[in-house]
Specification:
Layout (H helix, E strand, L loop, with lengths): L3 H5 L9 E9 L5 H9 L17 E6 L3 E7 L9 H16 L2 E7 L6 H13 L4 E6 L9 H11 L4 E4 L8 H11 L17 H16 L9 E11 L2 E10 L2 H8 L4 H18 L2 E10 L7 H6 L10
Parallel strand pairs: 1-3, 1-4, 4-5, 5-6, 8-9
Antiparallel strand pairs: 2-3, 7-8
The structure holds guanosine-5'-triphosphate (GTP) and magnesium ion.
The site of magnesium ion has 6 residues, from helix 2.
Length: 315
């Protein structure tokens, strides 16, 4: 196989093969990234119990003999408080009109909030494609709340179909994929069958470090963190050297990330190293630095430098 086109092997596909883009939209923390990872059987997107974990649009690619689904994971839509938040919300919003199918994901264990309502409106205004309402976290839903909670969501949005699932426990996960495939247009594969994401290893490694920051550091601090991977070198056949910088906004946050005697940074580094070793498939030597970039979340130039590229303002 000598080029990407032949790797995709489209000539072997059945004539009614389906493909398309499926945007997963919802407020923060409802389980969008968890579901995509579960479908792919690999961690392509980081996950955390804290809201506003995902910051970029990223693709997770599921290839079956009869279909290729390109899931588009998006940042949770919320009321932004700084330019990073604006970037995140705009990124998610822009994915709606481009999608062949929109999955509107909600947390059915709780009643809808104003955020869910706004997103429902956004989907109605921007979307032209079928909408599947996904009621997630069914495992947390007490039996007496099934009807009132579901009804509240059914009233919220104009949907074509709905499914109640548990992304973590697995209820109806496969059924939902079949429901999606039935709604996709006929078309070829866009990616080689073994490709799981459009993200680079470097980006995923930086995210895996940020995931551990979200895990170990609390309150506002993890939200003020950005991670950039600098050096990436194959030192030996079985050892990769990775140097990364953890950016924070204040000296006090730097102190928290480093911790007493460097203990917190060590903890973050060790946990992230384990995850990155799984990603690259060999041993990793991970070196971390912590730097202050004052108010980077409010500064467009800083955001761009850290990989949160906003569209250029029209002059
Ligand atoms: N009990 C339960 N927890 C879930 C389920 N799905 C996701 N979670 C948990 O919900 C939390 C948030 O999951 P994420 O996948 O990061 O949520 P997200 O929608 O991608 O969040 P943002 O990236 O912030 O928009 C994590 O702690 C998950 O383990 C589920 O079906 N049941
Ligand atoms: Mg997410």
């Amino acid at each position: 196989m000598d080029n990407d086109a032949s790797m995709i092997l489209n000539d072997e596909l059945p004539p009614d093969h389906r493909s398309g883009f499926v945007a997963v939209i919802g407020k923060p923390n409802v389980g969008k990234s968890t579901l995509i990872n579960a479908w792919l059987g690999e961690k392509v997107a980081i996950v955390s119990p804290k809201p506003q974990t995902t910051r970029h649009r990223l693709r997770g690619i599921l290839t079956r003999p009869d279909a290729q689904i390109i899931f588009v994971d998006t940042p949770g839509i919320h009321r932004p408080r700084h330019k990073l938040g604006e970037f995140m919300v705009e990124t998610a919003t822009k994915s709606i009109p481009d999608a062949d199918v929109v999955l509107f994901m909600v947390d059915v264990s709780e009643m809808p909030t104003a955020e869910d309502e706004q997103i429902a409106q956004l989907i109605e205004d921007r979307g032209q494609s079928p909408v599947i309402l996904v009621l997630n976290k069914a495992d947390l839903l007490p039996p007496d709340k099934v009807q009132p909670h579901s009804d509240a969501y059914f009233e919220l949005v104009q949907y074509d179909e709905w499914m109640m699932i548990s992304a973590t426990r697995g209820d109806n996960r496969d059924k939902l994929v079949d429901m999606i495939v039935a709604r996709l247009p006929e078309g070829p594969r866009y990616y080689p069958p073994d490709q799981l994401t459009d993200q680079t290893m470097r980006f995923i490694a930086a995210e895996l470090i940020r995931e551990q920051v979200l895990r170990f550091v609390h309150q506002e601090v993890p939200h003020a963190v950005a991670v950039a991977v600098g050096e990436w070198k194959q030192r030996r056949e079985d050892l990769t050297y990775i140097g990364a910088t953890v950016y924070v906004e204040k000296d006090s946050q730097k102190g928290i990330i480093i911790g007493q005697g460097g203990r917190m940074l060590k903890r973050i580094g060790q946990a992230a190293r384990g995850e990155i070793e799984q990603l690259v498939g060999n041993r990793v030597y991970l070196e971390l630095w912590v730097k202050v970039r004052k108010k980077w979340r409010k500064d467009e130039d800083e955001l761009r430098r850290l990989g949160y590229a906003l569209p250029r303002k029209k002059s």
